[in-house]
Amino acid sequence: MRADRPAVLLDRDGTIVRDERYLADPARVVPMPGAASAVARLREAGYAIVVITNQSGIARGLFTAEQYDAVRERTDSVFAAAGATLDATYMCPHHPAFTGPCECRKPGLELYTRAARDLGLDLHKSVLIGDRWSDIAAAPALGARGILIPGPDTPPAETSRATREGIVAPTLEAAASLILAS
Question: I want to staple 94 with a disulfide (CB 3.0 to 4.6 A). Which of 15, 82, 99, 116 is the partner?
Fold first, then answer.
């Protein structure tokens, strides 16, 4: 498989769905305003849409891998029903305080490089988007771009840093517009 397709690699909680703090109930999946239309626009422009998510609630014992899978399936179906199919989701179930260090927890590179390998993605043509600095911190190492979408839980220092670096957008819709304009 040729690695030439660009991708938008999205955080899940607080970026494409409302952050419910350890989301374990599929009934509580609520897309962020405009997220489905932004994803649909990016797909239409030829971007693969991949979710990269840290799910430390599994390591903490707050929910099971099966509960996570049910939430992922619900997220997939909600976005697909809105014409915004997600190509794949990659998840890290670890937390260093509970399971020790790993290579897959963002900002680690493992999930991004696995997605690139599995889906034939060109990370140099890709964009990482999230509501925390750890969601976009891997962008330079991958040769990708990063865009921070600050939310209510984004630390002010992270928003300030992204603003100084010119990589902040107020919403996923605005981030999609930036990507499509470049």
Answer: 99
